[in-house]
Design brief:
Elements lengths: L1 E3 L12 E7 L2 H17 L2 E7 L1 H13 L7 E4 L5 H6 L22 H6 L1 E2 L2 E2 L2 E13 H6 L9 H14 L4 E4 L7 H11 L16 H17 L10 H9 L3 E7 L4 H4 L10 E4 L12 E9 L6 H11 L2 H9 L7 H5 L1 H4 L4 H13 L11 H16 L4 H20 L1
Parallel strand pairs: 2-3, 2-4, 8-9
Antiparallel strand pairs: 1-3, 4-11, 5-6, 7-9, 7-10, 7-11
Helix pairs in contact: 7-8, 8-16, 16-17
Organism: Nonomuraea maritima
Pfam families: SBP_bac_1
Protein name: Multiple sugar transport system substrate-binding protein
Length: 411
């Protein structure tokens, strides 16, 4: 779908028409409604091309590879294609542009900015964030005599086992189990055990002691306290369905999906759902705090200055606050410090997000070019652990394959 907000203008250098390509998302719907005011204030015109994710990827693949200048601003996924775009030189260096004093670059959270930075240079501005939090059933905790949600992974394991033993038809814990889809949610367990997908030298690290412990814990928790006959290909829709049907006490998931659990039309337990910060492991509580989407400037654009004017406005404190009030979590610290910015979220969710903002890690999957392939490799030990196989041996096998992958990608 193409929307021309105020017609089209000259396509040459320094055009007063900014061509913006955006994904189908509530953020996009909101920004489109606000465009007339931006155009009135700036004297510029904005042409928006709005596409589904697959169409968006296809268009970027064609136009960016060809060095096309007919995209000025692009909405992209930093953790899915960000490294590919940056390495290929598709994203303009924003180092000088972010120095705009009234815009306040320092207000952006470090976790999301980590994901939109390449070789020390900002190449994108995060617009939508996600953190992993603990969903839980208040009624089941009370029935089990627990007066607060677990603060550590050890406490989570004990509480999940206790509730499952007392409630035969209810799982103590549920989470994603699919080899690829589970990687993002497993990442917070990995970090909280003190590990990561690669070490400080860029070498594969999914068989470190911390990683082996994390794989064993995640897989073991689902195996021992999870749903009976648990499937090993669950993504978030399947795991969420188990939780919202009242069949699980605890569930770790992206906060962006919380309305599925609190909406009475979607959840049988909507009035009993609580949220808590991700439980601490040996390495502390280190959930991911990531940008699911960001805005960047096409390095081939001939209209960089005006492209930045659009981004500067769309990611301003005022627009970020407006987006957050509509339910789109922002990457600015100021909107989370504002009562107005948190008014539409459950109080315990706000507390969980604020905790994540302080200790969160800026990636939830390996930071590589071929992300899908990497997820398949590092996700295999999750499945093996769930099915009762030796998690440590699976981690060793995965590490060798992942190191080979990294070596091949570096060639």
């Amino acid at each position: 779908m193409t929307l021309s907000a105020c017609g089209s203008g000259d396509d040459g250098a320094a055009s007063d028409t900014i061509r913006v390509t955006l994904a189908n998302h509530v953020w996009t719907d909101n920004i489109k409604k606000a465009l007339p005011e931006f155009e009135k204030q700036s004297g510029l015109k904005v042409e928006v091309t709005q596409l589904g994710e697959d169409q968006l990827s296809d268009q970027y693949n064609v136009k960016l590879n060809a060095g096309s200048a007919d995209i000025d601003v692009m909405m992209y996924r930093p953790l899915q294609e960000g490294k590919l775009f940056a390495r290929n030189g598709y994203l303009a260096d924003l180092s000088e542009l972010v120095k705009s004093p009234t815009w306040d670059f320092s207000d952006f959270q470090s976790g999301p900015m980590e994901a939109t930075t390449y070789e020390g240079k900002p190449v994108g501005i995060p617009i939508i964030t996600e953190q992993e939090v603990l969903y839980y059933r208040k009624d089941l905790l009370a029935k089990a005599g627990l007066d607060a949600p677990p603060k550590t992974l050890d406490e989570l394991k004990d509480a999940a086992a206790k509730i499952k033993a007392a409630e035969p038809d209810v799982a103590g814990f549920v989470a994603r189990t699919g080899k690829s889809t589970a990687v993002t949610q497993f990442s917070s367990f990995l970090y909280s055990f003190g590990g990561d997908f690669v070490d400080g030298g860029g070498k594969a690290a999914v068989n470190s002691d911390a990683a082996k412990q994390a794989y064993a814990y995640y897989g073991g928790l689902i195996k021992d306290a999870g749903p009976a006959n648990v499937s090993t290909d669950m993504g978030w829709p399947e795991a969420m369905a188990i939780f919202t049907q009242g069949k699980a006490a605890f569930y770790t998931e992206a906060n962006s999906l919380y309305k599925n659990a609190t909406d009475p039309a979607k959840s049988k337990v909507s009035d009993q759902v609580g949220f808590a910060p991700f439980p601490a492991g040996p390495g502390g509580s280190k959930p991911y705090n990531i940008p699911s989407w960001a805005l960047g400037v096409n390095a081939s654009s001939e209209n960089t200055a005006n492209a930045w004017k659009f981004i500067e406005w769309a990611t301003s404190k005022e627009e970020t606050l407006a987006q957050q009030k509509s339910g789109v979590p922002g990457a600015r610290t100021s909107v989370w410090a504002s009562p107005e910015g948190t008014s539409t979220f459950p109080e315990d969710m706000v507390a969980a997000i604020e905790a994540s903002n302080k200790t969160g890690v800026g990636h939830d999957r390996p930071q590589v070019v071929k992300v899908a392939e990497a997820r398949e490799i590092v996700g295999q030990p999750i499945v093996d652990a769930i099915t009762g196989k030796d998690a440590a041996a699976a981690a060793d096998t995965a590490n060798a394959a992942f190191q080979q992958f990294l070596d091949d990608e570096a060639k």
